[in-house]
Amino acid sequence: MTGSINGFSKRSKQEKIDWIVSAYFNNDCNITDLITQYWNTDEELQKLHDEFIENTISNFYLPFGVAPNFLINNKWYTVPMVIEESSVVAAASKAAKFWSERGGFKTTILGTEKIGQVHFIYKGEKQRLVDFIESIHPLFLEDTHSITQNMQKRGGGILAIQLKDKTSEMENYYQLHVTFETKDSMGANFINSCLEQIASTLKQQAVSYNSFTEEEKKIDVVMSILSNYVPNCLVRAEVSCPVEDLRGKDIVNPTLFAEKFVQAVRIAEIEPYRAVTHNKGIMNGVDAVVVATGNDFRAIEAGVHAYAARDGKYRSLSHALIEDGIFKFWIDLPLAVGTVGGLTSLHPMVKIALQMLQKPSAQELMQIIAVAGLAQNFAAVKSLTTTGIQQGHMKMHLMNILNQFKATDVERSKVVAHFEKNIVSHSAVVELLESLRK
């Protein structure tokens, strides 16, 4: 019987599994076997995974693939990608090969600033608050020195602290808007530690500030937290070539292809319903590399989609045009990622991924991730405007359908051969399997 349970986190892993199997699977021993089957046989490695989060009972595996032939700023990369969706790695690889023969990808770091905020309530006269913040500004830096000194040695630290008046949107609401440079670290813990110290200094100094009234001295800090919206931590990835150079096996008329491609991207710039799916395709490439390198894909997703709606309307993240006979396709992405700290120094497969990428700096990783997103988008829009998206996707999905119905090796070979010349659909595959099994 299901229900609540006290002290669950204090139970052993086996006790947690026993309770779950009892409560939700009628003590089915096959479920226990399945859960434990995914444990690492290396006890030390399993212990490492167990301690990443709380209440670990097993491991959840995702495929770790690679997309070769990425030429980025005249340097070759094989890009690691962790994702379960059919055709993503194949599409990225195909786009990488296509552009490697046309000069490759070019990237530019447009900014590396990260953001944190102290949100507080101040009931008083604004000018006195402005004067107060200005007077204690040096103390903010002094009191956070023990936190920032190591980061400063690497060229990072607190860049600016700005008072923002938000009282027109919420009564008595102000914030300290703090910008940071965190170098090769994503910097979440660093930023949050700095913000909490700044908040503490703010409250303590307010109590003894003589120009404040007794009410004004009672500054109430609501919260201190980094922001995953980083519009000034930005990277651009781009490709370009003469329109005629787009000609290939499946691009017979490069002029028509380029025009339709630009139109498709333009539609995603003006139509939110299309833009969401368009950008989701970009994030197929972005997230796969983010996960492989031990970064926070949820933070990246939130920041990227906020950036896509920064002017009040959700739009395409990528852009394309034809100018003087040159096809240009580019993307700007806000990416706060790191190559040191967190899982990057703990997860064995993350270490392999970063080694495969030739131990990139955070800025280099930003560029690689943006290129993966652009490559994925190019492949998707190219398919949409030529053969259609389903032809390639469903052929990749064919293996999933065959696995679902436990096809034998003989059945697999016959089904694959059949669909080399026929349209793949779930019903068509099932129908063929049933006929083979009669």
Structural category is alpha+beta
Intertermini distance = 42 Å
DSSP summary, beta strand count: 10
Sheet of most strands: 4 strands, antiparallel
Percentage of residues in helical conformation: 40-55%
Order of helices and strands: HHHEEHEEHHEEHEEHHHEEHHHHH
User: Which word captures the global form?
Assistant: globular
Give the strand content.
Answer: 15-25%
Report the total helices: 15
Global mean pLDDT = 94
Low-confidence stretches: none
Please list the strands of the largest sheet in the order they lie side by side: 3-8-10-9
Taking all Cα atoms into account, the compactness measure Rg is 27 Å
Strand and helix map with partners:
Elements: H1 13-24, H2 29-37, H3 43-50, E1 64-72, E2 75-82, H4 88-100, E3 106-109, E4 114-121, H5 126-143, H6 145-153, E5 157-165, E6 173-181, H7 188-207, E7 220-227, E8 234-242, H8 254-270, H9 272-292, H10 297-308, E9 318-323, E10 326-334, H11 348-356, H12 362-385, H13 389-404, H14 409-418, H15 426-437
Antiparallel strand pairs: 1-2, 3-8, 4-6, 4-7, 5-6, 8-10, 9-10
Question: What characteristics describe this protein?
Answer:
single chain, 438 residues, alpha+beta, 4-stranded antiparallel β-sheet, 15 helices, globular
Written account of the structure:
The protein is built from 15 helices and 10 strands. The strands form 3 sheets. Strands 3-8-10-9 form a 4-stranded antiparallel β-sheet. A 4-stranded antiparallel β-sheet has the order 5-6-4-7. The two termini are 42 Å apart. With 438 residues, the protein is an alpha+beta fold. 48% of the residues lie in helices and 18% in strands.
